[in-house]
Amino acid sequence: MTIFVVTLQCLDRPGIVLAASTAIVSVDGNILENDQFTDPVTSQFCMRTRFESATTDLDGVHGVLTAALVSFEPVLTVRREDVQRRALVMVSQYDHCLAELLYRRDSGDLPLDVVAVVSNHDTCAPLARRHNVPYFEIPVTPSTKNAAENDLRGLLTRFDVDFVVLARYMQVLSGKLCRDLAGRAVNIHHSFLPGFKGARPYHQAYQRGVKLIGATAHFVTAELDEGPIIDQDVVRVSHARRPSDMVSLGRDVERTVLARAVRLLAEDRVALVGHRTIIFSQ
Amino acid sequence: MTIFVVTLQCLDRPGIVLAASTAIVSVDGNILENDQFTDPVTSQFCMRTRFESATTDLDGVHGVLTAALVSFEPVLTVRREDVQRRALVMVSQYDHCLAELLYRRDSGDLPLDVVAVVSNHDTCAPLARRHNVPYFEIPVTPSTKNAAENDLRGLLTRFDVDFVVLARYMQVLSGKLCRDLAGRAVNIHHSFLPGFKGARPYHQAYQRGVKLIGATAHFVTAELDEGPIIDQDVVRVSHARRPSDMVSLGRDVERTVLARAVRLLAEDRVALVGHRTIIFSQ
Amino acid sequence: MTIFVVTLQCLDRPGIVLAASTAIVSVDGNILENDQFTDPVTSQFCMRTRFESATTDLDGVHGVLTAALVSFEPVLTVRREDVQRRALVMVSQYDHCLAELLYRRDSGDLPLDVVAVVSNHDTCAPLARRHNVPYFEIPVTPSTKNAAENDLRGLLTRFDVDFVVLARYMQVLSGKLCRDLAGRAVNIHHSFLPGFKGARPYHQAYQRGVKLIGATAHFVTAELDEGPIIDQDVVRVSHARRPSDMVSLGRDVERTVLARAVRLLAEDRVALVGHRTIIFSQ
Amino acid sequence: MTIFVVTLQCLDRPGIVLAASTAIVSVDGNILENDQFTDPVTSQFCMRTRFESATTDLDGVHGVLTAALVSFEPVLTVRREDVQRRALVMVSQYDHCLAELLYRRDSGDLPLDVVAVVSNHDTCAPLARRHNVPYFEIPVTPSTKNAAENDLRGLLTRFDVDFVVLARYMQVLSGKLCRDLAGRAVNIHHSFLPGFKGARPYHQAYQRGVKLIGATAHFVTAELDEGPIIDQDVVRVSHARRPSDMVSLGRDVERTVLARAVRLLAEDRVALVGHRTIIFSQ
C-alpha cells in the first residue's frame, strides 16, 4: 500500500469533506489520519489527510482530487509519503541547530531530505561532511550580498528545494528573497517572541530579569522577527543565571523548537492563514 | 443555528467518513470541528464531529445519521451542544477538587450541569449550598455499604446522570457498581499512575525520593487504580519538600487534572478503545 | 522553639557569613535554612536565613544581629515566623485571583494575613465577606483619583500593611504612590512580559499567533508593566483557541503565578537588586 | 584567583556554618555560592560552598577546613574547580546519550573530563573517536561477565575515575560492583520511575495508556531500578503515539535528563542522604 498526504485550503462551504472523501473512496483510499480546521476570522477551511491506497499513481490521485474539489477553488497539495520533502539548511558559526537536525534525520526521527547546507562561514563544513551533506560556503559582505543571494537562488533551483531552514543563520535576507520564499522558509529566533526582538536577546532577557527564556520558530518575512509563528517553547532560568548561562540553556530550547517546527513542515502539518499558523498534530 | 455534537465508534472500513459527511450535508449541516482516529491495534475507528445546522430537531438528526451509518454498526451518540451533560460529584472531606469544579462551572469554563453532590461526610455541604447544588450525605460503613450504593443508584436515576465524578471520594465502590458505571465514572488519583498505587501516595513518593509528583484522572474500574487514564500531570518537587508539602502541591495538580478530564467528558472528547483513551482535543 | 526569619542585603565583602553565623550562635540559634547570592553586576550580597532558638525575644535577636553586622551597613529584617506578613489585596471585577489567594490562605498553603480587600467595584464583596476579610469599596474616577489614593493610604496605615497585592486591579496607581510602595506592591499582568504590554494582551497574543500565553507577577513601578519580575509562567495554546478561550486559560496561569509570587513575599524569599529579583526558594 | 568547591556532610549541630566560614575567612576566601540543607528525618546536615581565594594550595585549604571542622566528624571534599571530575561512560548500541554528553562537553556546557568510553559492542566506537575519547570494547557473555568486570575495574583504576555513567548500557552490573561504586555510578532508566521498571518500559507505557512518558537518572544500586533518584522529567504523549514513537520521544528526555544529572555530579551538586538525593542547584 502507498500512503498519500493531502493538504487543502479554501473558503469554507458545506460539502468539502463530502467531496474529498468521495474522491478518496474512488481511488480505493482508506483514511489513516484526518485533521481539519475552519478559521473563524477568515472562514478559511484547512485540511490535512493521510490515506493509503493500492495505487501508486500520484498524478492519477492528484487528478481525481482536483476534479472532485474544483468548485471550491482550493489550494491543494498531494504527495507520496515515501518521497520526502527537500530542505536546504543555512547556518553561520553556531552548529547546535544544524547538528540537531542532522542527528534526527540520521536517527529516523525527521523524515526529511536535507539536500544541502549553505553558510557564510566554513565552520560547520566538517559537520555537514560527516553527515554526507553537500556544503556550500557563500560569504556575505555588504557589497556581495546581491551576488550571494543569486548563488543561493541557484542552489534552490539546482536542488529542487521545498523549503529553507535558517538554523541560526546570522545574515538578514533581502525583502525580495523573503517574499519569494514566503511560506517556504523557517527561522529560529533565540527569544520567546514578541519579547526581545533584534540582537542579543539573552542579554536583553537578563536585563529585564525574566524568569523564563525561550525560542521561536517562525516563517521568514520581510519584517524581521515578525513572521507567523510555528512553534515556541521556554525554559526556567533563576536569578543566578548570567547571560552566558542563558546562551547555553537557550541553545537547548532553540534546537528542540527548530527540530519540532521542521518536522511539522516535513510532514505537511503547517497551514498558513493570514498571519497565523494552523498546526495539524495529533 | 443549532450546534450538534456527534461521536461514533466502529470497526474501520473505507467509506465511513463519506457516509457521515453525506448525512451531515443532508441535514444542511456545516462541520465546525472534526476529529478522527483509527486505533492500529484494534482497528477501531473513532470520530467526533461538531456541526451547525438550521434545524433544531435532535431526533431527526439522529435518525438520519443512524440510517446513513447502519451498515458500519457503530456506537453513535448525538446531542445538542446547548443541552449540557449531567454529572454527579462525590466527595469525602477534602474540598479542593469540588471547589475547582464548581468555580469553573460558575465562571463558564466548564460546560457541565452539576446536578448533585454526594458525600459520606457533611464537610462539603456549605460549599455545595453556596453554589446551589443539592447535597446528599450518604454515610458508608462496612455494614451499610450495600444500602449506601442503593441510595446512590437511586440518585443516579432520579437526576438522570450522564457521569459520576469521584473528586477525592475516599470510599471504594463495589465491583458491581464499577462495572455498571463502566466508561461513565471518573476518579482522580493523587499520584502519577502507575507509580504509587494505593494509600498515601505522597508519603510513598517522599520515601522513593522522586523529583516530580503527579495526579491521574482515570475511568473507574473494579481493579483499583487500574482504569483507563484520561489525563495526567506532574509538578517538580525539590528534596526540601516534605510529605505535607507534597500534599499541598499535589492538591493543585489534582484539581487541575480532574477539571481538565471532566471538561473533556463534558464535551464528548473522550473515546475508550480497550484499556486506552482517545482524546479529541485541538 | 521559636523560628526567626532574617533577610540581609549589603555590598559583598569577606566575613559577612562569619559575622552572621557568630551572631546566630550567640543567641543559641540553629540554622534550618540558609540561602545566599552575590549579584555579579552590582556586588550586592543577599541572604535569607531561617533559624530556631529557645528565645522568643525578637528585639533581642534583632539587636544582636544588628551589632554583629553593623560594619557591613546592611539592610536587615528579622521577624518571628509565627507573626505573618500583612497584605492588602486590591481587585476590580474579576475575582479569580482574589478567590485563589483566599482559598490558599484558608487551606494553610499561604502563610499570610490578608487584612483587607479594596476595590473600585462592589463585585467581590460577597467573596471577601465569605472569607471574613473587611472589604472597602473605593470608586475611582478621573476627578476622584487623588481622594481615592488618600483613602487607600489611610487603610495602609490603619491596617499596618506590609505589602499590597494588585489582583487584577484595573486602575493605574499614581507615580507618587508607586514610588512610595516601591518593593512593597505586586501586580499580576496577564501576559508573558515583556510581550504584550498594555491593554487586552490576550487579543494581542491572538493577533500575533503565539503558541504559548503567560502571566507575570512583578513589583509595581511608576512605569507601567516594567517593574521587576517575581515570577512568570506560560501555558500552551493551539491555533483553535480564540481570544475568549485565551482569557479563560490565562485566568488559570494568572492565579497560579500570583499565588506563587505572594507566597514568596509572605515568606521573605524575594530580594530586589537593581531591576532584578533574587528568589530564595529551595 | 582560584575557585574551590567544598562539600560537607555530618550530623546537624549548632556551629557548623560558623566553623566553616571561620576557616574560609582564614584562607582569605570569599564565598561565591553557598547551599545547605538539613534533612529532617536523619538530621544530616549537607553543605556545598564555592569560594575564591588568592591561594592555589589545595592541600593547605583542605587542611585548614579539616582542622576547623574535625569535631563535627564530617565527610568533607575539597577540589579546585579548574580540575574537572573524571568520568567513564558505558554504552551498548544506542548512541544518543553518549552523543549528547560529548556534544555538551565540547560546547563547554558540561565541565567534565570524559576519560574513556566502555561498551559491550563496537557500535559507538566511531562517535568516541570523533571526540578523541579512548574507546574500550569489553564484550559480555554469561561466562565472561566476571572477567569483563575485572577489565572494567582495571580501567577505573588506570584512568583514576571519579564516577561511572551508564548511558543506556544494557548489561546489569554485579551486586558486588554496584556496592563498590555506591554513590559513584549513575544510570539513565527510560521510564518515569517507579513506573515501568524492568524491560521495554515504553511498551509497558503504551499498554497502560499513560499520557506522559519520562526518564529517570539514578544512582546505581544492587537492586535494579531502585537507586536514589537524581533527576527525572516527562514529555506528553497523545493516544496517537505508538511504542516506536515513544521510543523516539523518550530518547529526547533520556538524553536531557542524563545530561542534567551528570552536570550536577560534575559540579558536586548531589548529596546522598539515606535513599534520597539532595540537589544543590540555584
Question: Please, could you describe this protein's structure?
Answer:
The structure is a homotetramer of 282-residue chains. The relative contact order of chain A is 0.13. Chain A is an alpha/beta fold and 282 residues long. Chain A folds into two domains: 2-80, Alpha-Beta Plaits (2-Layer Sandwich); 85-279, 3-Layer(aba) Sandwich (Rossmann fold). In chain A, 33% of the residues lie in helices and 30% in strands. The first copy, chain A, has eight helices and 13 strands. In chain A, helix 1 runs antiparallel to helix 2 (58-69). In chain A, strands 7-6-5-8-9-10-11 form a seven-stranded mixed β-sheet, sandwiched between helices. A four-stranded antiparallel β-sheet of chain A has the order 2-3-1-4, with helices on one face. Chains in contact: A-B, A-C, A-D, B-C, B-D, C-D. The interface between A and D is medium-sized, with 16 and 16 residues.
Q: Rg of chain A from C-alpha positions?
A: 20 Å
Number of domain units of chain A = 2
What portion of the residues of chain A fall into strands of 2 or more residues?
25-35%
State the major sheet of chain A: 7 strands, mixed
Assign the CATH superfamily of the largest domain in chain A. Answer: Formyl transferase, N-terminal domain
Which structural category fits the helices and strands of chain A?
Answer: alpha/beta
Helix content of chain A: 25-40%
Number of helices of chain A: 8
Write down the overall geometry of chain A. globular
Count of individual beta strands of chain A: 13
N-end to C-end Cα span of chain A: 23 Å
Name the pair of protein chains with the most residues at their interface, and give those residue counts: A-C, 30 and 30 residues
User: What is the CATH class of the largest domain in chain A?
Assistant: Alpha Beta
